[in-house]
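Researcher: Here's the sequence for the chain we discussed earlier.
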Amino acid sequence: MFREKSNEYRQYGACHPGSWKHFRGRQGFFGEMGEVWGRHGRFGGDFGGRLFDNGELRFVILQLIAEKPSYGYEIIKAIGERLSGIYAPSPGVVYPTLTMLEEEGFATVTSTDGAKKLYAITDAGKGELKANKALVDAIFARIEKVGSAFGRGRSPRIMRAMHNFKLALKLRFAQGDLNKEQIGKIAEIIDDAAKRIESL
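Model: Thanks. This is the structure I predict for it:
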């Protein structure tokens, strides 16, 4: 049901001030669930802060096309799979980054299929990866750590359900402050779900 309202959710990019900010703390609910905020990925819980610092996503993309020439959507899918489905960069981030890498001479378009472009790494790109090997290794070690942690015992169906639950709360908080009755009902629903999961 919530999945069908994705367009409605997207219009609430900026939520009601103060209505849910307390959920974003390091030890908060969304942090424990591996909440992802922003285009470049920001995580709470034990992983802290942003998944990718400024400029790091370009190295991720460069490494992926070094492993295999890829289309933009394949890169998005590959990153999502390595992170167990909890985060994938948006096309609005990936495609401009690919264009930037091409302009810098680190990537090249080897073929096109309509509007789709197949990107591969250049010799200059390989040199860029080599010059930043320590950083690239650290980024992918972080990806592996996050993906392994959130992938244990979780199925794509569970991740989808968690995502829908998260979006439902975010949408409701975006509509304004809750009254006592609404707070009680939401808490009751969450507590009931937790008890049912624990009893499995």
